[in-house]
Amino acid sequence: MAESKREQPLIPSSSRNLPDFKKSVKLKYVKLGYHYLITHGMYLFLSPLVVVIAAQLSTFSIQDRYELWEHLQYNLISVIISSTLLVFLSTLYFLTRPRPVYLVNFACYKPDESQKCSKRIFMDQSQMTGTFTEENLQFQCKILERSGLGDSTYLPEAVLNIPSNPSMQEARKEAEAVMFGAIDELLAKTCVKPKDIGILIVNCSLFNPTPSLSAMVINHYKLRGNIKSYNLGGMVALQV
What we know:
Elements: H1 13-16, H2 25-39, H3 41-58, H4 62-73, H5 76-96, E1 116-117, H6 119-129, H7 134-147, E2 153-154, H8 157-160, H9 168-190, E3 199-204, H10 213-221, E4 228-233
Helix pairs in contact: 6-7, 9-10
């Protein structure tokens, strides 16, 4: 009797056939629709109201419009309430509307040609260090082939040196070269003065020294004292 009974699954088969909503493409469009609804909620709310009012006014004759004007002319309370409501809605719209963000220009830092390193040079230097086994070197070669890095990849001087010198001082030197090089080019393109910058956002996935990278930029360019600075770290897939 006990052997004839089959074990019942803990999860019903109907629930196991449900789609994975977290990975569903349709959920992406739901999020986009929600974002559009929140961003343009004022338009979506006022558009039907304006259409109804316009349709109602289109049915009025000249006599009806004259009577409406006479009614509003001698009804001060209605005029005040309507004007207050109009001013309130206008103020609410201008305060809650999304502000446009423009990309004025951008700049990318390009190191010197002396820092260019091909795959062959990288593997030769790894072998010359004498710290990696043959298995380690094969693993590095496999990573290089699958990483998408080409023979025109630039590496910091701390990695190119023999032996390599990965230290805090070299990491700070690399960060200063990349940030200041890109910012100098950007300021030259846009003709923006450092004192005119009101917001600074710096993101680095791994290197997070103290003082922060944003503080290094502020002190280097003598940015104004009331600047809003944000130093982000650990966000590998995002560069700001």
